Amino acid sequence: xxxxxxxxxxxxxxxxxxxxxxxxxxxxxxxxxxxxxxxxxxxxxxxxxxxxxxxxxxxxxxxxxxxxxxxxxxxxxxxxxxxxxxxxxxxxxxxxxxxxxxxxxxxxxxxxxxxxxxxxxxxxxxxxxxxxxxxxxxxxxxxxxxxxxxxxxxxxxxxxxxxxxxxxxxxxxxxxxxxxxxxxxxxxxxxxxxxxxxxxxxxxxxxxxxxxxxxxxxxxxxxxxxxxxxxxxxxxxxxxxxxxx
Length: 245
What we know:
The chain is α/β, with parallel strands linked by helices and 245 residues long.
């Protein structure tokens, strides 16, 4: 087992188990506790850690971007309600503002790379200012892009602020290849073919008996999910940036 998934919603947690069984995302374990309860010691031995994991689409996107399951990568799409029009606009005062707990775990484990996303709004940008400051203080190089799914040809907008933090403590060696291009020693970030769109793959799996209305729960899960196709593009470009460190 290489991956840790933290997800409090029972429906999404069961989907994660189904997706692992179908080998669509990195194998691992699902922890349904709140991130508030998670301790650094709970994460020892895991290569990937996905918080607010939802349907596990960050893991899927990492695979599509050619990142091996064994890579030391964390992801976290913190709840957007405190900073979105759907919430009460309470920002950091909202109990759903869970970044401080995610930041605590990052500080204690210091993973090589952290990916995340947030709503692309004024409040979302204000949130990211705080996040980037915390990460830079932990010796990470941080970057972000305001992207929409339609920008890569998907049939919806889904505007999001994607961000990445590369640790300056874990720079992997690069060398010049025979064609004069820099490459990561011992590893190539090659994108595998996307034989089955993730939507189709999800439809092939059956509903889960968790006491929820299937229609409501599945709609909510998809609505809160990232676009893995766009995330994969962002991951590929973000990994290239490590060459300059």
